[in-house]
What we know:
Largest sheet: 7 strands, mixed
Low-confidence stretches: none
Structural class: alpha/beta
Strand content: 15-25%
Bound molecules: pyridoxal-5'-phosphate
Number of domains: 2
Oligomer: single chain
Number of helices: 14
CATH class of the largest domain: Alpha Beta
Strand order of the largest sheet: 4-10-9-8-7-5-6
Number of strands: 14
Amino acid sequence: MTVDARTGPEVEQVGSPRAAVLAMPSYKPGKDAKQSEAELGITNAIKLASNENPLPPLPEVVAAITAVIGGVNRYADHRAMDLRAVLAQWQGVELSHVTVGNGSSAILHRLAAAYVDAGDEVLYPWRSFEVYPVYTKLLDGIPVTVPLVDETADLAGLAAAITERTKLIMIANPNNPTGTALSATKLNEFCSQVPRNVVVVIDEAYFEFVDPALGNTIVDVLPHHPNVIVTRTFSKAQGLAGLRVGYAVADPQIISAIDKTQLPFAVNAAAQAGAIAAVQHSDKIAMRVRDIVEERGRVLAEVRSWGVEVPESQANFVYLPLGAKANAVFAAMERDGVVIRLFDQLGVRITISTPAENTRMLLSLKNALA
Ligand SMILES: Cc1ncc(COP(=O)(O)O)c(C=O)c1O
C-alpha cells in the first residue's frame, strides 16, 4: 500500500512495473502551440519545437492517403512489401536490405529490442536524440556517452569507448539538437574501427537537408560495413510526421533480426500509401527542401550577425548554445507566441519554418536576447 500525498487515503499498488520503467522519465515532446496559448492566454502561437515541416503534405500525397482511408476496416500489409519495393528501387538496394517502421524512432526501438541484453553497453554521443537513453534503459542496457566536441559527434572518442560489452552505437547525423553533421567518408573510417559484432546505427532523420557534398552513407558506407544500419524518416522533409513512417537500409541479417521485433501491422495503410506517393514525387519535395535550406542560411546569417554563436546546421533547425540564458530566452519567446525547444540551462533549438514564420521568430529572438 502507498499513501497519496495529495489526498491522504491509502492507494493500493496496481501491478509492479519493472525497475527500469519506474526509473524512466516519460518522453517529452516539443511543446504544442495550443498548450502555450492555453497556459499564457495568448493567441496565434507558432510551434517551432519539433522539427516538423511547416507545409502540409503535397496534394498528390494527400490524394494517395485519402484513396486508402475507405479500406481501413482491413489490416494493412504487415510487411509493407509495396513500400519496401519502392524504397529499394529508390535507394538502389536489394529488397532484402530494406525495412520500414512506425516512424524511424520505432526502428531504433526495435534495434534496441533485437540487440541489447541486460548489462550490454549502448554507445552514443551526448547530447543527442533523447530516445537513445530511454530505449537503452528500457532494455536494462548501460548507456555509455561521449561528449560532443564543438557540438559535433567525437568519432575518435566513440572508437576509444568501445568495449567487449558494446552492442550498439547510435549516431544521429545530423545530430539533434545541434544540427552538426559528419561526412560519409569520416563515418566510413570510423566504422572500420568497429568490430563486426557491434551494430552501428546511423540515424539520418534529416538526411534530405544535408549538403550532398557530405556524401550518402547508403552508397558510401553500407557496402563496406555489413554491421551498419542507416535509418531515415518521412516525418521531416516529406512532411508526414503525423502518419509515423520511417525506413532503414542494412544487411539482410540485421533487417531480419529487427523485423522480428516489429509490432503487428505497425505501419498503417495511410502511412504506406503516403510514403509511396512521397517517393514518387520526390522531385517536388526536393524543391521544398531547397526552400528550407535557403531559409536556414538566412536565419544562421542573421543570428550570427548579432554576435551570437550558432553551430553550422545541416538539418531543418538551428541550435543556440546559450547556457544559463536559454531558459529566459525560451520564456520570452513563448510569451511572443513563438514556441521553441528548450534544453534546460544549455540552449534552445529552433525549427526552420516558412519565411514569414522565420521572420517573426527572428524578431522575437532578437528581443529575447537583448
Ligand atoms: C535524430 C532523430 N532521429 C529520429 C527521429 C524520429 O523521427 P520519426 O520517428 O518521426 O521518424 C527524430 C525526430 O525528431 C530525430 O531528431
